[in-house]
Structures are given as structure tokens and as C-alpha cells.
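Because showing beats explaining, we let one protein speak, sequence and C-alpha cells together, and leave readers to judge.
___
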Amino acid sequence: MTKTLTHLQALEAEAIHILREVAGQCSNPALLFSGGKDSLVLLRLAEKAFRPGRFPFPLLHIDTGHNYPEVIAFRDRRAAELGERLIVRTLDESIAKGRIVLRQAHESRNRHQSVTLLDAVDEFRFDCLIGGARRDEEKARAKERIFSFRDEFGQWDPKNQRPELWNLYNARIHPGEHIRAFPISNWTELDVWQYIAEEGLELPSIYFAHEREVVVLPGGALLPVTPLTPVSEGAVSVRMSVRFRTVGDISCTAPVPSEAGTLAAIVKETATTEITERGATRLDDQTSEASMEQRKKEGYF
């Protein structure tokens, strides 16, 4: 009797197939792991693809130095629990070396991550980076292949991509080039949350509703009040119940109003929202200078 897979089982099977293709075709891959929800899903998929053996790749995080401490602590603990190697490279190191020059001390570091990432690729000679990007997140990511080619400068050309017919992936590259592989490209935010709930995955606490001091910006976005993002002159802060749909650099990652304190409540909230994940929570995606497509051409995730 032929077994009919559920929607999530089919997505899981596809992602496991992609992870095994990376392991089979690439000699020195790494899995990007930030402690965020999408990379936590990748960890569970890697467990299902390769356990009881060790992962055939290390975990890699490019730390802006401006991440939420709850997420960094969770990242370290989860990597230790799995017994997997975690490589961390920081923007502070790149700034100290003069590789990154900030225009202002407290500007968003999010767009500068490409420099540190490409330096890590060169340092460890990685030929593939496995990431948790999804096509539903943003228009530029919707253009990208599952095996996405990067040239010797780490750049992506959206007009020069390889065909992926019948789930066949081409990881052939020349020295200095590398591949970005995205096993959950075809997942949606709702798929991710349903999978997390089904698998019972633990998450950083800021993904769940909690009370936090925020400033309501023009247009309705919320700016969390932190030492890096204090209340500006003339602004007024309020305390409200919020949660984060995505996590990243403090200076550009906004929470959303929410009372969802459980996975079931988050799934329900996600199923009914009309605002995209990045549209609601990434403040630096609102300007053309910081457009995702331009950043990706320069080597961004």
C-alpha cells in the first residue's frame, strides 16, 4: 500500500533529500545557525537526515554583536546539547581589522554581515553554506534556486542561475566559488510554525508573547527599547505585550503586538495575519539602499 504523506511530511522529506545532496556533493559545507526558528528547524531536519552519526558539517554563525542575548544563549546551549561544532565569527572582529567601517557607531550592522560571512568562507574554504531562507519571506528570495551559485567574489547573479529540473541539483564549482543551499525554500512561515509545534521544538523565549518597552514608529512598526536603541528625543515609549516573528540585529528587528504565549496560539495567529514576516519585523528592509536583492548580490544570506 502506498503511503500518502501529509503536507509537512512531504516538505520534511524534500528538505532531508536536499541536506543529503549537500553532504554527498560538497566536500566542506557548513550549516548557518543563529538560534532563530528557521535554523532550529534545519537542525531538526539534519538530525533526521544524519543521526545517529554526527553532522557532516559544522554550525556557523555570523554574530553582529547586536543580537538579543536570549537568542545567543540559546544558540550556545543548543549546539552544546547536540554535541556539534559551532563556529562563530563576529562583526566586531571585522571592524577591529578594518574590514568593516561603520558610518555611525550605533548604525544597523545587519547589511555588513556579508563581509564577515565571506571572510569565514575564505578562512575555512567552505564550498557550501546551508541556510534557512524561504521564498515566502521576500521578493528577492523568491527568485533564488535551492542550490544557489556564488562566484569567486561571493556574489549572486539572479539572471544567471542553474536549472533544477526533477529535483536534480548541481553543486559543481571552480576553486573560490561556493554554493548556498536552502532546504526549506518551499516552506512558508506557517509551515515552519506548524512543524515546530508538531516536533515540540524548544525556542528562545522572545518568540512567545511577553511584555516589553517599545516605541511605536510612524507607520505602526515597533522599535524595542534597549541600550542600543534608546528612546529618542521627543519619542514616547509604552509597555505592551509583544513577540518576535523573526530575530536578528537589535537595531532593525521589530516585535509585533501579540498575546500568543503558546505554539498553538502562534500557529493560529500566523494563519490569520495579512502582513508578511519581514514586512512586519525588519525595519531595514524598508529602504532601497538596504534592499534584499542588492545585499544578496553582494554576498548576503
Notes: Residues 7-25 form the longest helix (19 residues). The chain has two domains: 7-189+289-297, 191-285.
